[in-house]
Amino acid sequence: MAEQIIHVAENFWNIRGSFRIGGVVDIGTQASLVQLSSGSFLLLDSYSISEPLRKEIDAIVGDGEIEAILNLHPFHTVHVQRMHELFPDARLHGTQRHLDLFPELPWEEVRSEDQELHDWYADELDFTIPRGVDFISANENIHFASVLAYHRASGTIHVDDTLMYIRLPRLLSLVGLSDRVSFHPTLAMALEKRKGAAAEFREWTKELSDAWGEAENLCAAHSGNLLAESNRGASIGERIRKAADRCELILGKHQRRYG
């Protein structure tokens, strides 16, 4: 996928980049740049930014500073080292898995999943982590969970893997198919194998759609962006509710087995 920086809304930019599975299929990836009311900037996630993109970022930041890099998905690790090299003065936050994989990097003690970090930015950003699922799965092929971020001022959700936006060819709309927001297909494997896990996940999805229901933009890592200017369908909040409804078969099966 072509590298580009998308100006999603005031004070929010989404960086689209390339990520190839097995070096062949390019499913894309993302990071986002957020300007805080203080004038400083945050990077959400990491990407090995090319020189042209670096110049664009420098132009956006100007005399400001990138104060921190928040790596939000425990299995998004390919670009972590390079992002730190590009912005060595930014505080570096990661999940426990990032810290374990790259102990040589100057990580902050406060991790991306820690409430303390979320509280630091609570005036401008909301964070949430899915409940009832493994955050860091023992199966490295299960990438369901992440730390989701919501920049309230721009109405933008930044999410890796947990939520996906699938843009279908326009011709498919003629047969009743349309673009959709969905939860990652590994949900069944990600659910914790214990009583109450399905109910906790269900409750979390309700809280998510209620609390972030006014969101206007959704930036998703491997699928695409659903932006206010191009959304011709339901609101993002309603799309999340419908995505949760489609999980009921999986959740019901899990509840019957584990309670």
From TrEMBL:
Give the matching InterPro entries.
Answer: RibonucZ/Hydroxyglut_hydro
This chain's protein is named MBL fold metallo-hydrolase
Native species of this protein? Answer: Seongchinamella unica
